[in-house]
TrEMBL record:
<dbReference type="Pfam" id="PF13450">
    <property type="entry name" value="NAD_binding_8"/>
</dbReference>
<protein>
    <submittedName>
        <fullName>Pyridine nucleotide-disulfide oxidoreductase domain-containing protein 2</fullName>
    </submittedName>
</protein>
<dbReference type="InterPro" id="IPR036188">
    <property type="entry name" value="FAD/NAD-bd_sf"/>
</dbReference>
Length: 90
């Protein structure tokens, strides 16, 4: 479940609390997202919680200095098992 477009974090929190989740994944980095995908494919209802405004963890590109974008650690994605890369739907 992706919660976007809420006018406040209170309304998003209310929506999260109203549903019964089978699993909570703390952190929407690449590992958390893969774990959530596996759990979801297994039939569980999964909520992924992230404190930052952006998901992806080490795989994100951000403008750290105005006009200059940096990849945090995207080279690490090459270390993912090839079976995971093939499995995760785009």
């Amino acid at each position: 479940m992706l919660l976007r477009g809420f006018s406040s974090s209170a309304s998003a929190t209310r929506v999260l609390k109203e549903k019964k989740w089978d699993a909570l994944v703390i952190g929407a980095g690449h590992n958390g997202l893969i774990a959530a995908a596996y759990l979801s494919r297994g039939g569980l209802s999964v909520a992924v919680l992230e404190r930052r405004h952006i998901i992806g963890g080490a795989a994100v590109t951000e403008e750290l200095i105005p006009g200059f974008k940096f990849s945090r650690c995207s080279y690490l994605q090459s270390l993912l098992r090839p079976s995971i890369i093939r499995w995760v739907p785009l």
